[in-house]
Amino acid sequence: MRIRSGTRIIVDSAVNGRFSAVAAGDFDTDKDERYPVTTLETVKNIVRTWSPGERIPCMRGISRITVIETGH
Q1: Whole-model pTM?
Q2: Which residues lie closer than 8 Å to 17 by C-beta, 6 or more apart?
Q3: In angstroms, rounded to a whole number, what is the distance separating the alpha carbons of residues 1 and 15?
Q4: Distance in angstroms (rounded) separating the CA atoms of residues 66 and 72
Q5: Cβ proximity of 64 and 11 under 8 Å
Q6: How confident is the model over 7-59, as pLDDT tens digits?
Q7: Which contacts qualify for 36-44: CB closer than 8 Å, 24 or more apart?
Q8: Nearest CA to 12 among 51, 59, 49?
Q9: With helix as H, strand as E and coil as C, how does 36-70 read?
């Protein structure tokens, strides 16, 4: 699935849980290994905490993306 920069998404991550985010760049979930996303909420895992507005690592096979609102 092709995701455009600015698209609001929900990320279901095996590592970081479920969180709201925005695509920080264009990517294709079928072709790209890493997805550039910025979290819209605080995300915590065992090792680290990300604040809203920070880039958070998302990868194919570990993170599932659901589109909420498409980017411009």
Answers
A1: 0.89
A2: 43, 45
A3: 21
A4: 17
A5: yes
A6: 999 999 999 999 999 999 999 999 999 999 999 999 999 999 999 999 999 99
A7: 37/9, 37/11, 40/8, 43/16, 43/17, 43/19
A8: 59
A9: EEEECCCEECCCCEECCCCEEEEECCCEEEEEEEC
